[in-house]
Amino acid sequence: MASTADFKNGLCLVMNNDIYSIVEFQHVKPGKGAAFVRTKLKSLRSGKTLEKTFNAGEKVTTARVEKRPFQFLYADDMGYNFMNTETFEQISLEERLIERPKLLKDGQNVDILIHDETETPLSVELPPFVELMITYTEPGIKGDTATNAQKPATLETGATVMVPLFVEQDIMIRVDTRDGSYSERVK
């Protein structure tokens, strides 16, 4: 059990027979009335987000969740296959448990959230940034810029991201996995 004073991003709560992770929270003390905590929660089983308001000091049930290091091996028709880097055991997960599966590259290290009591995988956390090679993009035409012009680029994993016009084919770029956007060229 925890109270609203213990809230922090990433804390996992048990509510409505599901496990939710706190994405963001805000303590609010209005001039009139009691204080409350406004939260944005993400279901670790379905991936849906919801907003919920708790009274200040309200008790909530926390879930024991553990992050374990895994390495992505390959994807096949059965799912996405990962290997635990400590025990070398392999597991296969459904695509719905991965936030942006198109950004997974063979051999990439990820963290998998596992429910301690049932030993079931809940979600896959990619690193904040991944470095991927551009396999195809149209060449940028000089003088074809208005302001902040972008073009689509296909990456080695099959994902498509919008990149600036000066970025060319066969260049390594850094992609933000939180929103799937171009970050910078890799030198």
What does this protein structure show overall?
- This protein has 187 residues and is mainly beta.
- The chain has 3 domains: 61 residues, SH3 type barrels (Roll), CATH 2.30.30.30; 61 residues, OB fold (Dihydrolipoamide Acetyltransferase, E2P); 57 residues, Nucleic acid-binding proteins (OB fold (Dihydrolipoamide Acetyltransferase, E2P)), CATH 2.40.50.140.
- 0% of the residues lie in helices and 53% in strands.
- It is built from no helices and 16 strands.
- Strands 1-6-2-3-4-5 form a 6-stranded antiparallel sheet, with no helix packed on it. It has a 5-stranded antiparallel sheet with strand order 9-8-7-10-11, with no helix packed on it.
- Strand 2 and strand 3 form a beta hairpin.
- The model has no long low-confidence stretch (mean pLDDT 90).
Spell out the blueprint of helices and strands.
Elements lengths: L1 E2 L8 E4 L2 E11 L7 E8 L5 E7 L3 E4 L2 E12 L2 E6 L5 E4 L15 E7 L5 E5 L3 E9 L12 E6 L4 E5 L7 E5 L4 E5 L2
Antiparallel strand pairs: 1-6, 2-3, 2-6, 3-4, 4-5, 7-8, 7-10, 8-9, 10-11, 12-13, 12-15, 13-14, 15-16
GO biological process, one term: peptide biosynthetic process
Family: Belongs to the elongation factor P family.
Protein name: Elongation factor P
